[in-house]
Amino acid sequence: MSSSVIFLTLVTTLSGIYGARIKELNVPNVVRNGTGPVTLSCVYEVKEDENGLVVKWFHDEDELIYQWIPPMPPQDIGVITGRAEYPEELLGRPRTHSIIRLKEVTIEMGGNYTCSVSTYQEEEMKTARMIVYAPETNVTIHTPELNATHTRLTCTVQGAWPRPSFDFRIDGASVEGRMVWNGIENYKKDGFLIRYDAVVPKPTEPALVECDFNIPMTDYRRRESVVYYPRSHRSTSTSIAASTTPSSSSSSLAPTSRPPSTLTSATIHSATSTAPASSTSVSSSPRTSEHAGPTTPSTNPSEPTARIAVSTPTDALKPST
């Protein structure tokens, strides 16, 4: 008798008998915050003689966000409540397709999406991940003198999500520092804020300070640069800053309310965007480029104030569907 049971099991497996089977789960890999519509689709097969069809979607494994029991219309729950639509043409294939059209994605919608198709006899699930990223709204570098021998380097990024990774360099040499951030719970209230600090010996010659950061699992990258001038070179930098004439379209000298003697550095901004850019913007502080938020001038006389800003967004990421 046991051999008959084993034989029946083998025949069932080899013949591909199933009540419900998911063929495809289509979820975009990377989506920019605030864009849409974005379509999630689950393509499946259900045997003709199977009853009790129920299609569910889960967010991050255990949060039920969608339930469809044909012929009743789908119900959205949780993070997508009121943010999804189900046009009639998308509801005409209940035994093969479940489609969610998100009107606009937000960072809370990022995560794993699981489609579950079940009947009275069987259930199958598949999971895919969607990353929702947000570019920064503002980036600043400050270089205040800490004491007679050392300088503090600070790169502050506001609004970027997920938490970016940093590479801080002086004249091409990497500098180790520490990261401080305010967490996702403060994102809606204040915007996500992360700061990278490093303490280094004071450069004795003018030095290029670069803050590179990227958003993990995306192609979004950004570089902010400052030319640091030690006190012994500041009279020279003042002469250069005062005599600089803005070019026609590639750079401009930002106005400052302080006398020329306080000008100590120039800042160069560049950006690599993960979304198509409509134009290239060149400006002084505050900047108006889509990928470069306003830069707040320092109020500390020992920090750089003269800024030459060049913002160059490019399309570096495959379009999201």
Automatic annotation (TrEMBL):
SUPFAM superfamilies xref list: Immunoglobulin
Limits of the Ig-like domain: 20-132
Signal peptide: 1-19
Disordered: annotated segments: 229-321
Gene3D superfamilies to which the protein is assigned, alphabetical: Immunoglobulins
Key words of the record: Signal
Compositionally biased intervals (Polar residues): 311-321
Compositional bias ranges of the Low complexity kind: 235-287, 294-305
Lineage: superkingdom: Eukaryota
Protein name: Uncharacterized protein LOC107226467
Source organism (scientific name): Neodiprion lecontei
Gene name tied to this protein: LOC107226467
